[in-house]
Amino acid sequence: MSFDSLSERLPPVRGRLMENAALAPFTWLRVGGPAQALFIPADADDLADFLEATPEDIPVFVMGVGSNLLVRDGGLPGVVVRLGPAFGKIAALDGAQIRAGAAALDKKVALTAADAGIAGLEFYSGVPGTIGGALRMNAGCYGAETSDVLVEAAALTRSGERVTLSRDDFGYSYRHSEAPEDLIFIEALFQGRPDDPAAVKARVDDITARREETQPIREKTGGSTFANPDSPVTHPDGRKSWKLIDAAGGRGLMVGGAQMSELHCNFMINTGEATAADLEGLGEEIRRRVREDAGVELRWEIKRVGVNA
Ligand SMILES: Cc1cc2nc3c(=O)[nH]c(=O)nc-3n(C[C@H](O)[C@H](O)[C@H](O)COP(=O)(O)OP(=O)(O)OC[C@H]3O[C@@H](n4cnc5c(N)ncnc54)[C@H](O)[C@@H]3O)c2cc1C
Fold this sequence. Notes:
The chain is α+β, with helices and mostly antiparallel strands. The protein has three domains: 7-82, Uridine Diphospho-n-acetylenolpyruvylglucosamine Reductase, domain 2 (2-Layer Sandwich), CATH 3.30.43.10; 88-212, Uridine Diphospho-n-acetylenolpyruvylglucosamine Reductase, domain 3, CATH 3.30.465.10; 216-294, Alpha-Beta Complex (Uridine Diphospho-n-acetylenolpyruvylglucosamine Reductase, domain 1). 24% of the residues lie in helices and 27% in strands. The longest helix is centred in the C-terminal third of the chain and has 19 residues, at 276-294. The termini are close together. Residues 28, 61-69, 83, 102, 126-130, 132-134, 136-137, 139-141, 175, 183-185, 215, 217, 221-223, 303 line the site of flavin-adenine dinucleotide.
């Protein structure tokens, strides 16, 4: 599968612009077709100029490290933006604040906060994505999430205008944000609280160890496939997707090369040769079974993008 060239319609850039670029290697699930064009901007000005000059009918999609992304087998029409090292800076500020670029890895943010004696961001050590993905997904774990620590974020609109969003502008709920889909986040400011660096680091290490034990983190997976029907942050005793999937006989279920993990049955795995269609088909079969078994409509947490082959 390959797309027509877009080069005649795209402006010159300082960063890297590639056509028919494979995306599967950049996602945890390792499936799916190419991007019609893949753009890695040199910096925020390069990205803003590109967005301003790119015709509006060309779709633009931004990805992080693809830890929550299922790219369909036919690939993604339009431009996919991946933020490079210029967007990866992290700084600890006075007043127990952290400023981080959208391409910074969550785990590095947690470790920088720990080194600086800033508590509250330890949970990021359990999320294998970037800050951009965390802002979009309200990422979190073990009772804490992005909305608890976010002060504000800078973003570019589809036309390249720079805007600032406060935490409230995100309209956050469990693993979900109401922020306009076409915004590309470029930087975030977080508020923590002062603490002893060794104590913060110990909590980071504890989260890392718990992950190793309970999740198939060395597999080709997309993390939780479905959001919990009730937020564990606000309803600690609420309904959990994995319990519903287990009760409906979903643990270990396979479609082609796709399988619901035996270790954590809300995690779907590419066992080797899965296609995106296998993975999406498995997810829909799970939704059907849970609907029949418990009358609950599971909501996809993994973002499915692109077109079928
Ligand atoms: C093993 C494993 C464990 C996981 N555990 C957790 C967990 O405990 N808690 C949790 O919350 N999640 C978890 N996840 C899911 C995933 O890590 C998070 O959703 C993460 O926030 C996604 O970040 P990403 O950079 O990989 O984004 P991607 O998967 O690349 O993209 C996800 C979404 O974010 C958007 N996005 C990415 N960057 C930007 C940006 N700069 N501006 C605007 N939108 C952007 C994309 O458009 C897409 O809609 C897990 C995943 C795996 C594979």
